[in-house]
Write a structure and sequence with these properties.
The complex is a heterodimer. Helices cover about 45% and strands about 15% of the residues of chain A. Chain A is of the alpha/beta class. In chain A, helix 4 packs parallel to helix 5, helix 6 packs parallel to helix 7 and helix 7 packs across helix 8. The two termini of chain A are about 15 Å apart. Chain B is an alpha/beta fold. Chain B is about 50% helix and about 15% strand. Chain B has an eight-stranded mixed beta sheet, with helices on both faces. In chain B, strand 7 and strand 8 form a beta hairpin. In chain B, helix 1 runs antiparallel to helix 2, helix 3 crosses helix 4 and helix 4 packs across helix 10. The radius of gyration of chain B is 21 Å and the shape is elongated. Classes of the chains: A alpha/beta, B alpha/beta. At the A-B interface, helix 1, helix 5 and helix 8 of A face helix 2, helix 6 and helix 8 of B. The complex binds guanosine-5'-triphosphate (2 copies) and magnesium ion (MG) (2 copies). One magnesium ion binds next to helix 5 of chain B.
Chain lengths: ~280, ~280
């Protein structure tokens, strides 16, 4: 019977392989496997389902629950991350979700650098019939965020979702620019931004941990979004990030359409990683 | 840094002139951790550790700091060997036009790399034409058009069902990002390749990619005549182990590396440099 499948050495190897292939850091996999082998050797868990439950509980415990932080009006959400991780698409998806939930979101196209970045968010806004404030290409991204917050106030939007340019954490001047965007948001409205969401590509490996550290230093990241989980990657890098920085995972991107956004479900996330 | 980790491991070994096989296992654990942290795939790490063990035993690694250096050199050489020890240039067709089709997962860097390659070819005196058949992503065609304008090069918008191949001696076809498990999208890119008889089909992979990169690349290789890999966003300082795993698992040679957002930020692949990065 499946619930009585005994744990074998070969199955333990398969477990270790599954965890590593899910991009879980070796610094987390090694201690987990050590504990599992002890528990099995001491006879405290003899079947596969028991071990899987223990591993799942241990990993779920690593992810902090998301706390709803008090926010001002309009609420300000900054979307940040490295190049190509899925920020613009996520900003549009989040705006749609909030609008469908009764909010009045305003998008801010604060990527004034990349070719056709403004057009991309404007195209989404048009498609979803959502308002968007854009800067001009080459303009100051902080000014776009400032203008959007002012516009939200005067138009009665409840939340501003600001999309920013992709930037590598290895580029000091881009991290400085991000720091400035955060400062200017705070000048537009006291306490802004209320959320700084770091969008992580679910197919990334261990580099995600370095990204999270640098972005947190520059922009005080408050939560993570993991995208592209509709592929075969499992997004295991978030566990080391949660462990190191205590950041919760807020949203998961599961496709390229506006509705392909789901709130984080830690148990389902971990189960998908297990053999 | 593998070098430092090994030096620390060797320093704790009892003062014998030669390292025993048991001592070597300590060092090999360091090698395994370093490679996994560099995003080298699970299977390739196993292979590499076995190769390094065999060669280290054969070489009779000495105990001491120079022993650590010896092991690093064995690992470095094994990496270079696996990566393919020479640079692999872009091919030209014997009868014009040369056709280059760019493929890969979403957001890996295809559109930007298409423009970068066009820039390189134009500097070499060739006449590249950029064609985008990305009818899926919002403003994707605007993006390539804007890049083409920056370079003063022609960009054509087309439907994947009829890709124009005239207007220059080299046609670079930018396709939409797609999942290897999306049947409709994989069928689309198969038909693009069938219709354009490309000289090169380049798989663009993000240097920050993790363990999944090998599975995705193998799936692309199984259905398309992939001739080379472009490793984009190498300036992220990601160790880039995925490129090694892909090469080992599929035989696809790394041809180019994207090293920045500007359109001149592209370099010919150097196995030695990539091996250095993977070693940390
Ligand atoms: N399959 C899949 N693709 C996604 C997901 N999220 C975004 N994408 C795709 O990933 C690609 C990049 O998305 P963008 O939203 O442009 O990413 P970005 O972070 O804004 O990129 P830059 O602004 O250039 O840094 C696009 O092709 C998106 O359609 C997801 O959850 N699943
Ligand atoms: N730093 C850096 N950024 C790069 C590099 N190559 C591409 N990018 C950036 O990565 C992001 C994604 O690049 P795109 O060219 O849009 O990627 P794509 O594969 O065409 O994306 P899809 O068409 O959505 O699949 C953009 O922000 C690019 O500017 C590189 O070598 N270095
Ligand atoms: Mg964007
Ligand atoms: Mg593209």
């Amino acid at each position: 019977k499946p619930e009585e499948e005994p744990v074998t050495d070969e199955w333990l190897d398969r477990l270790e392989e599954a965890l590593l292939r899910a991009d879980l850091s070796v610094s987390l996999v090694d201690p987990v496997m050590l504990q599992v082998r002890d528990v099995v050797r001491e006879g405290r868990a003899k079947t596969v389902p028991k071990v899987l439950d223990a591993v799942r509980d241990a990993l779920v415990a690593v992810i902090p629950p998301a706390a709803e932080a008090p926010a001002g009006t309009p609420r300000v959400i900054l979307v940040v991350g490295v190049n190509g991780s899925g920020k613009t698409t996520f900003a549009a998806k989040l705006a749609k979700r909030l609008r469908d939930g009764g909010e009045k979101p305003l998008l801010a196209a604060a990527d004034t650098f990349r070719a056709a970045a403004i057009e991309q968010l404007e195209s989404w806004a048009q498609r979803l019939q959502l308002p968007v404030v854009s800067g001009r290409p080459g303009g100051d991204p902080a000014a776009v965020v400032f203008d959007a917050i002012q516009a939200a106030r005067s138009r009665g939007n409840s939340v501003v979702i600001a999309d920013t340019a992709g930037r590598l954490h290895t580029k000091g001047y881009l991290m400085d620019e991000l720091e400035k965007i955060v400062r200017v948001a705070g000048r537009a409205r006291e306490g802004a931004p209320d959320e700084v969401l770091l969008v992580l590509d679910g197919t990334q490996g261990q580099n995600a941990i370095l990204q999270a550290r640098e972005f947190t230093k520059a922009a005080k990241v408050t939560g993570l979004v993991v995208t592209k989980l509709d592929g075969t990657a499992k997004g295991g890098a978030v566990f080391a990030i949660a462990n190191d920085l205590g950041l919760p995972v807020r949203w998961l991107g599961v496709g390229e359409k506006a509705e392909d956004l789901v709130p984080m479900d830690a148990r389902a996330y971990v189960t998908a990683m297990l053999p | 840094q593998l070098q430092d980790r090994l030096a620390a491991t060797f320093a704790t070994l009892q003062g014998r002139p030669r390292v025993t096989e048991a001592d070597l296992e300590e060092a090999l654990r360091d090698v395994r951790v370093a490679l996994l942290e560099a995003d080298v795939s699970f299977k390739v790490v196993k292979q590499l550790v076995a190769t390094v063990r065999e060669r280290a035993i054969g070489q009779q690694v000495v105990q001491s700091v120079s022993g650590a250096q010896q092991v690093v050199k064995i690992v470095h050489d094994a990496l270079v060997e696996m990566l393919g020890s020479e640079a692999s240039p872009l091919e030209r067709a014997t009868t014009a036009p040369t056709v280059i089709v760019m493929v890969g997962l979403q957001g890996s860097g295809k559109t930007t790399t298409s423009a970068k390659i066009a820039n390189v070819l134009r500097k070499q005196g060739r006449k590249p034409v950029l064609v985008t058949v990305d009818v899926h992503r919002p403003a994707a065609m605007d993006q390539l058009e804007a890049l083409g304008k920056q370079l003063g090069l022609p960009v054509r918008r087309a439907d994947p069902k009829s890709v124009p191949l005239d207007g220059g001696d080299t046609v670079i076809v930018d396709t939409a990002g797609r999942l290897h498990i999306d049947e409709a999208m994989m069928a689309e890119v198969e038909s693009i390749v069938a219709a354009t008889h490309p000289t090169e089909v380049l798989l663009v992979v993000d240097a920050m990619a993790g363990q999944d990169a090998v599975d995705a690349a193998s799936a692309f290789k199984a259905r398309l005549p992939i001739t080379g890999l472009v490793l984009a966003k190498v300036d992220s300082d990601a160790r880039g182990g995925a490129s090694l795993s892909i090469r080992a698992a599929t035989g696809i040679p790394v041809k180019l590396m994207g090293t920045g957002e500007k359109l001149d930020a592209i370099e010919v692949f150097h196995p030695d440099r990539l091996a250095q990065r993977i070693l940390g």
